[in-house]
């Protein structure tokens, strides 16, 4: 899942981003509305977490831009404005959810995950394929009932592959969905991550390389 966090409280924005990355989300961060608009003009996000009161373009303006773009990005307003009128106004701008500061981080994660599920075609809460089971909410993977301990990045890559349901996923697509904006397009990170995933999942192999195309779960080599 690709997430944008935009908040002029830099420490808070960085803490939120780091926390979401522990749940295998690819997170980009900016500290004003201008930066948010610049990023949504370049990248496709599943969820945007926006502070309403930012310098430059406000979070309200960013939300309105996203709502009118047709990109399908879900918006979570994260703000100190806690009144009912504030909530109604924020939702009226096109926000999908509204969370007031201070907040419990576990609730923020749950809300972002829920919005992420709504930003894409409906999928089961637990993805299963070729003996693998991936539970996004619990952040758990098993192979034939055996726990598989993955890093956040490995989990993110496996999630993208399993959601593809056997379709070939290119290295570029994996970079876009599982890494943030600082990922080097010429890096071998995808290949290395897939290699470690294969080792951890074990035999028989379920992640296959399709020459000059990418990777898929299931099907012949």
UniProtKB/TrEMBL annotation:
Residue intervals passing through the bilayer: none
Location of the OmpR/PhoB-type domain: 124-219
CDD domains, per the entry: trans_reg_C
GO molecular function: phosphorelay response regulator activity; transcription cis-regulatory region binding
Domain Response regulatory: 2-116
SMART domains: REC, Trans_reg_C
Cellular-component GO terms for this entry: cytosol; protein-DNA complex
Gene3D superfamilies per the UniProt record, alphabetical: 3.40.50.2300, 6.10.250.690, Winged helix-like DNA-binding domain superfamily/Winged helix DNA-binding domain (1.10.10.10)
Pfam families: Response_reg, Trans_reg_C
UniProt cross-references to InterPro entries, sorted A to Z: CheY-like_superfamily, OmpR/PhoB-type_DNA-bd, Sig_transdc_resp-reg_receiver, WalR-like, WH-like_DNA-bd_sf
Name of the featured protein: DNA-binding response regulator, OmpR family, contains REC and winged-helix (WHTH) domain
